[in-house]
Amino acid sequence: MTRIFTRILTLLTICIILSGCSTTYMKNRGNDLADIFDIGITVNGGAPQFRLEFQPFLFPIGYSNLDGKLIGFGNRKWGVNEFESKGWGALLTGEGKYGTGPFNPCDPRQYEPIDDPENAPEERPSYAMGLIPVMQDGNDLWAKNIECNKGIHLGWIGIHLPCRPLDLVDFVLGFTTLDIMKDDAVAVDADEVTAPAEEQ
Are residues 42 and 151 in contact, defined by beta-carbon separation less than 8 angstroms? Predict the structure, then answer.
């Protein structure tokens, strides 16, 4: 077991050295790690809102109509961020609109990466959830659906606890410079809306 661990550590060290230990490389590894999960408390003012959502990978269940704030960690940031979760799930199919922070069409957490930011949507679009839409439409829907999105919000307060297994794989493979989620070197701040870097 120790020998296997040593070999893995050696391989990772070589990959890091070959990559030049650049600031961008290490920043991308940190971002990949941060993408694995979000955690926080959801709050809202005004009228009471509701969210009871459980999405175990391709099988969304529940209903959500929440437009408030997330206090905690979301979309690679700590603090108090805008938070939106609207949609429904009926086990095999559903529809959702979900995101933390200001909408950025070049952020793969909020929208599929695009090559032309000038023609990007101005509002966060809905996307299909569940096994049926993934089998029918394919595209990149599977990437959005392979996560375990969990949250409950009753009235003015709730809990948000999603996790993303594919991002764990992306984090590990990222040390070899593979980017299966295609989210390296992508701006996530609304004032940094730029197209993703071209693949080398």
Answer: yes
What tokens appear for 34 in the block? 């941060």
Residue-wise pLDDT tens digits, 50-75? 999 988 878 999 999 999 999 999 98
Length of the chain: 200
What amino acid is encoded at 183 in this protein? Answer: D
Contact 79, 67 (CB under 8 A): no
Domain residue ranges in the chain: 1-36+169-186, 38-163
Given a contact cutoff of 8 angstroms between Cβ atoms, the answer to whether 111 and 100 are in contact is no
CB count, 10 Å around CB of 198?
A: 7
Q: DSSP state, 166?
A: H
* Distance, CA of 133 to CA of 139 (rounded, Å): 10
DSSP 3-state of 163? strand
